[in-house]
Amino acid sequence: MLKFDRELFVQALNEGALGKRGELERVVDEISGKGFSNIFLIGSGGTVAMMYPFEYIFKSYSALPVRAEIAAELLVTDNRQLTSKSVCIFASVTGTTKETVAAAQFCREKGATTIGLVGIPGTPLAEAVDYAITFGREKHAFDVFYLQLQILTTRFLQQNGEFPQYEQFAAELAALPQGMVAAMEEFDARAEAFAIKHRETDYHMLVGAGNLWGNTYSYAMCILEEMQWIKSKSIHAAEFFHGTLELVEKDTSVILFKGEDATRPLVERVERFAENITKELFIIDTKDYALPGISEEFRKLVDLNVNWALTSRISAYLERERNHPLEIRRYYRKMEY
Amino acid sequence: MLKFDRELFVQALNEGALGKRGELERVVDEISGKGFSNIFLIGSGGTVAMMYPFEYIFKSYSALPVRAEIAAELLVTDNRQLTSKSVCIFASVTGTTKETVAAAQFCREKGATTIGLVGIPGTPLAEAVDYAITFGREKHAFDVFYLQLQILTTRFLQQNGEFPQYEQFAAELAALPQGMVAAMEEFDARAEAFAIKHRETDYHMLVGAGNLWGNTYSYAMCILEEMQWIKSKSIHAAEFFHGTLELVEKDTSVILFKGEDATRPLVERVERFAENITKELFIIDTKDYALPGISEEFRKLVDLNVNWALTSRISAYLERERNHPLEIRRYYRKMEY
Questions:
Q1: Domains in chain B, ordered, with CATH?
Q2: Where is the SIS domain (chains A, B) (predicted)?
Q3: Coil, strand or helix: which one is B282?
Q4: Is the complex ipTM more than 0.85?
């Protein structure tokens, strides 16, 4: 596969997430032992989008009040729910994202317990939090974060008596990196064909729901807009019918992120509509991939990791076909504002 | 002003919201007297967007757990926070929005206490809830809802000991309809000029934050996309810098919704960036309007009503300039999906 090192990918997930299982569990157990009143999942851009799936998973499994918050907004709002009894979880690949670091300091000053998932040790975010989980690399950092968050989230659920399947789930996660690679290999030719066909397409509509809504939002904003400078609209599948549908014409590119949680029927409803209107409907369905070693009941939890991995294949080919490296920015971190 | 009847507007707000103050207070007081554990603000499209400001206001003022939810997603998700101790608030202009009606029935079956804000009495939503607040008209229904929600929200806060200024605030609201009309009259020429200039513009970026984020999302989706078939991207001011900024070029239309709550600096940051890049920056700032009778400390609560009213003037002129009636739909309620 273009620009993909299978060994490196599996190694990153094994070392960065699965190998940190004991450390992640100790953090959760210590915090759960002391007790807390709510959990905040805090990030900026891609990292807050990465928190949305876990906010949704908590909602579906737990009576714990959990809320994702944009770091910069949290900083200016006197959020009355944020107290010394709160647990705040942050993530930053570089460990230097300004608002995220400031938000971690802010929450710590309020007396909240802070956990930071950080690519690079010794960086400002790693220094600002009570518990820093670092793994020493930027490559595949989001895949690592997603897997770390799976462990953190389900461990919190288990400690709260809401996920007795934890041991089995955590053990099965060991099979996920290989399953993700196999899924990417299977999807790769479709990703390449999509990028070739849509080399010149200047607008995409992305639709998702439930625990894939964060990925939908993120792929539109952080990949298509930020890294490819292509206009894109992310819209929740349930909201699609309250406005955005009116824009769909016979050649509109509509990308559906189909997952396996309870919101799947909402995405299928968009599919039934879109397949009658546009010939440019592209569906990424995690159900198409086997994931050996993952029990049926857990697929609805890890579909987000698989979806994330699959979409990275599109990015690799868009970069080549559009001759537009994913790293160039016009403005971000290039000017003051 | 084009397609605007000043008397009718003030009458709608007076009868539909201010005249319902006693009824709204009795509902809140009865529910607060019995006790409850959390509040859900539930809608679809424009009506869930209308709930976002109040979710934000609760967050800033209250320790009560309050969450806005998309009706269709709530219906398929087994939300563990939704119990017989929950209060669920719904709104629908026609009283017939399918998912909203189904969600009201669903919440009531769970034993939750349900409140419905409904344009038309005797409709399915009005029948499905424990407390229906109806006002008998569709015209200006959103302006009425916003004002009803101001009363409901601040009354809940007062009953929870978090808004001792309630009596003064509720009394001052009587001056708001006239203040909104004066603001619209002042803004009207700018709205017309914008519509003339952007008659052919095929993409707008809308940016807002805090209690104007819902309006930002809604104007993009429900007006520009649904009613004018113009591509648009709504982006939270804090998230703008994590992707969408890269799309801004010298002729990109960027519309800023500037309000008066704690998130104003986030929008000002976008302003500082955008004014250096595009010549098509259009700012709608509620601070520019006097609002006689409204105390300084309450402006940050009612900026969302004012912003909503101002943007309606743009819609009126876009409709005329683009010769595209706000009522035509290609697909919504015209086909099955």
A1: 6-164 (3.40.50.10490), 176-321 (3.40.50.10490)
A2: 27-162
A3: strand
A4: yes
